[in-house]
Design a protein that fits this description.
The complex is a heterodimer of chains A (113) and B (116). Chain A has 113 residues and is an all-beta fold. Chain A is 0% helix and 58% strand. The chains are: A mainly beta (113), B mainly beta (116). At the A-B interface, β4, β5 and β10 of A face β4, β5 and β8 of B.
């Protein structure tokens, strides 16, 4: 089955700096890669996603890149703000798995003011 | 409803007791997922329901765990003879399935289970 690895587990940056979180997946049939943000005491919420027919997608300060050959994808947050502090999860989903979504272990991001 | 509703939000039980956790998905969503999140950890896949298909139970950690989804809507996760290692937040999510290839999950706030 699918396995998703995520790094780093913890990331601390200064406000205004960029943050990068990286993930790899194992199942070459995976075709949809969402990123979720989880704030304290809440369920994860989708912040951005990318499909396998696209190499890069941007939405304001966040962007995702996908390298299908290497089976890895990354989240980039620019001009970080204290409210970006949260846990971020990458995930992979494949039609072959009935669209079962498997998550990485998460990255706890701290943005220092 | 407007979102995914889970109950109870908090449950404290004694070791050996059975517990039931409920999930009310977004109306019309055909897919429903259960995940477990231990303190400070990631999202561990438990079980996945899609329409009328047989559920994918491959993530259930032991036969003490079971789940059902009645009428394609509400789901109940049951843990029998609870153990201390079952203590975690149990998250439910639903999705509409295919939406142009994107499978966007909407999560509930979770049920925090503490086994004493």
């Amino acid at each position: 089955g699918e396995n998703v690895e995520q790094h780093p587990s913890t990331l601390s940056v200064q406000e205004g700096d960029s943050a990068v979180i990286k993930c790899t997946y194992s199942d070459s049939a995976s075709n949809y890669f969402p990123w979720y943000k989880q704030e304290l005491g809440k369920g994860p919420q989708l912040i951005i996603d990318i499909r396998s027919n696209v190499g890069e997608k941007k939405d304001q300060r966040i962007a995702v890149t996908l390298n299908k050959t290497a089976k890895h994808f990354s989240l980039h947050i620019t001009e970080t703000q204290p409210e970006d502090s949260a846990v971020y999860f990458c995930a992979a989903s494949t039609k072959a798995g009935g669209f079962k979504t498997i998550f990485g272990a998460g990255t706890r991001l701290f943005v220092k003011a | 409803g407007a979102g995914v509703s889970q109950s109870p939000s908090n449950k404290v039980t004694e070791k050996g007791k059975d517990v039931e956790l409920r999930c009310d998905p977004i109306s019309g969503h055909t897919a429903l997922y259960w995940y477990r999140q231990s303190l400070g950890q990631g999202l561990e896949f438990l079980i996945y329901f899609q329409g009328n298909s047989a559920p994918d139970k491959s993530g259930l950690p032991s036969d003490r765990f079971s789940a059902e989804r009645t009428g394609g809507s509400v789901s109940t996760l049951t843990i029998q003879r609870t153990q201390q290692e079952d203590s975690a937040v149990y998250l439910c999510a639903s999705s509409s399935g295919l939406a142009g290839g994107a499978n966007v999950l909407t999560f509930g706030a979770g049920s925090r289970l503490t086994v004493l």
